[in-house]
User: What shape does this take?
Amino acid sequence: MTSITLGKNGPAVTPLCVGTWAWGSKLFWDYGNSFGETEVEEAFKTSLDAGVNFFDTAEVYGNGLSEELLGKFIKKTTQSVQIATKYGPTPWRVTAKSVSEALTASLKRLQVEQITLYQVHWPFIFLMNQETLMNALAEEVKKGRIQAVGVSNYTAEQMRLAHKILAQQGISLATNQVRYSLLSRQVEKQGIVGTARELGVTILAYSPLAQGLLTGKYSVQEQPTGPRKFDSRFSKNGLEKISLVMSTLRKIGKQYERTSAQVALNWLISQSGVIPIPGAKNSAQARENAGALDWSLSADEVNQLELMTRPWLE
Assistant: This one.
C-alpha cells in the first residue's frame, strides 16, 4: 500500500485514517447499546488486517474512553499502530503546562510514550493565545512525545498563523482536520484547501461520507431513524437533491465493483494531500472503508464528480 507524508516532512501514514469518535460515545453514537467494545475491537482488527493502521481520536471522545479503548487494543497486537489525538483548548487551560498535562493524560490512556500526530481540536482563543499554544506543542515535538503537530477546524488565516509560529521553532505544521466530502466542499471555496497545498499542510477530511449520506444506505424510500431524521439533509427533499450524485456514484462503483461509499472516499484520496477519516463502529464498516484503497478513479471520473457537486461548495 502506498503511504502519504503528513505535511512537508512528517511521518508517513496510510492514505486513509480510521475515525474513532463513536468509540465510547454514548450520547451521540449510542455506544453500549447498539454496539460496544467487542464491535469496535473487531473494527480495529479488521482495519489492521486490511493494512490501515492510522487511527484518529481525541481526549473528549467518550470522555476519554475512545483513547482508552485504542490503548487497550494496541496492547493486544504486535502490529505497528499510528495514533492521532487532539488537545481541547478550553477556557481553563491558560498556560503551556496545560498542554503538557493534557498530552500526558492522553498518552496514559493510550498506553504509549509517543503519538504520531497531536492536533488542536478547535481554534477558539480564550486566555491562551496561539503563540503560547503552538510553542508548547513545538516543545513536545522536541521532547519526542509527539512526531507532528496538527490543527483542526482552522481557517486559512488561522492556519497561516499557526504555520508561521511553528516555523520559528523549526517545525512544520503537518495537518488541518476539516469537514470535507463531495457534499461538503466549503473548505475549497474558503481557501482552506488551497492554502494547505501552498503551505505543504495535509488535509484530514472528517465526515468524508457526509454522516452516511454518501453510503447509499438512505433514499427517499429508505429514510433514516434516530438523530438523522431531524437533519434536513436526510429529509425527502434533501435526499432528492442528491439523487443524481448517488446514481452516479453507483454507476461508477459498478465499473470497479466498489460501493458508493468507496467511490466517495476514493474521490477524496485522489485530491492532492487529502486523507479521509471515515468512522468504523464494526468490522463490516472497517472493511468497506479499506475498500477505498489500492485502486483509482480515472481523471474523467474525478472531474465528473467535481462538476456534479459544485453546488456543495456553498
User: Anything to note?
Assistant: The CA atoms of residues 11 and 129 lie 27 Å apart.
